[in-house]
Amino acid sequence: MVRTIGNPLSWGLRQLGTAGDDIGKVSRRIGGTGEIPRVRALSFADLGAALRLGLRDFAALRTDVIAAAMLYPLAGICMVWAAWHGALLHLVFPIASGFALVGPAVAIGFYEMSRRREAGQAANWLDGFRVLASPAFGVMFIGAMMLAAVFFGWLLTAYFVFLVTMGPEIPMSAQDFVRDVLTTPSGWAMIAIGVPLGAVYAAMVLASAIVTFPLLLDRDVGLPAAIVTSLRVTRAAPGPVLAWGAIVAGLLVLGTIPLFLGLAIVLPVLGHASWHLYRLAVRAE
């Protein structure tokens, strides 16, 4: 059948109709059609099992995942460089530590790779990007925007803490800033206030997103149900969940050394391990 170019009005109406269908699909996916899954209490042994399985996936996909994960060190370097050279030196640490807040969303490509390997399918770095075509991508994107809002909330909080403790003068150099933070009462006050506040942000994301994104990728349960499931997993085993958060935070700190290059290894391992932790925490259908 020969296709002809229609007039701009008819073309525009067709595009609006397609966009409307896509928005409708995302809206239905947000609500989901499945029930809230049953969960099981995680144990400390489960954390070790998830990490071992994550390392196994990383070893099997090493070249592919490192190629894909190099985007994260580059993004981190760009953000810190912009802060360093844009009179935002006092926000370098909050920006670097903020990776833990958006990590559950940025690892969705690694969830997909592990999902495919678990199903006995071939997996490579392109499959990590094919998640963009998943029916769940729209709702996962909304979840990612929620985490981004938390990240920017943390940056605003960190800036306010700086203002009331060491501000309002912006540090002239990294050496002066580090010296003032470590050797002055105002710097100690900023640490004493900022670190607990950062821990509150991290705990909030951990409790509400520990299995949210793998679950959204795996089942049509909807965003609210996925968040509730994460909260149930946290309530069922708060000790192991907090330990998992500490493991993630510690590995991400190591991943920022040097120059965020370690994230090319740390993020894939944690992404794959998070998929397997989801499998251990949420009962099969």
TrEMBL record:
InterPro entries noted in UniProt: DUF2189 (IPR018692)
Protein's UniProt keywords contain Transmembrane: yes
Membrane-spanning intervals of the chain: 65-84, 90-111, 132-162, 188-217, 241-270
Keyword Membrane: yes
Keywords, comma-separated and alphabetical: Membrane, Transmembrane, Transmembrane helix
Protein name, UniProt field: DUF2189 domain-containing protein
Source species: Albidovulum sediminicola
